[in-house]
Amino acid sequence: MRFEQTSDVLNHVGLFHQQAGEVFRKLSERASNPRVRMLLDYIVRHEESLANSVFSYKTECSPQLLSTWFKYTHDQDIFAPLTAVDLDRDPSFDDVLDLAVDNDAKLLELYQEMVERSTSPDVKELFSSLLLKEMKEKQKLIRSALGLLDI
Which SUPFAM superfamilies match (predicted)? Predict the structure, then answer.
């Protein structure tokens, strides 16, 4: 996706979290294993929370920050792992966790790239904050998934 302004990036990431939540919800409908369904339900709530969080950044940020322009194109498609999911099969625990980790990796890569490419200190700080938050969310997701394996 080609980004032009900070608001474009935030919209793209928010939509990504919404679509990820929908993919995991559809997988939950196909899952026969109770642990897998529990993991999927957790991830759906997780994605909805992250989407709301990213969209709330837009209301909290100054219009100047949101309208900051970028001089590059981000060519990586963060939606790629989601579009490759087979929604017609019963997912395994590992399939679900791998998809969630792949999604997090794509977002971490995007945020890191935005930090590196930002010319505005405020925009750099915004994406650094999102990067740190996503790292923490990834750790929380992995801990929760491992906890489900112990049940």
Answer: Ferritin-like
- Cα torsion at 5, 10, 11, 16 (round to 10°)? 130
CA proximity to 102, closest of 57, 43, 32: 43
C-alpha–C-alpha distance, residues 60 and 116, integer Å: 22
Angle subtended by helix axes 93-117 and 121-149, to nearest 10: 170
Pair of tokens at residue 127: 């994406």
Phi, psi of 69 (to 5 degrees): -90, 150
Contact 19, 82 (CB under 8 A): yes
Write down the CATH number for the domain with range 6-59+77-149: 1.20.1260.10
Does the predicted model carry a pTM greater than 0.85? yes
Does residue 1 carry a pLDDT above 80? no
Please name the residues in contact with 42: beta carbons below 8 A apart, sequence gap of 6 or more. Answer: 141, 144, 145, 148
- The predicted-structure confidence for 111-151, as pLDDT tens digits, reads as follows 998 999 888 999 999 999 999 999 999 999 999 999 988 77
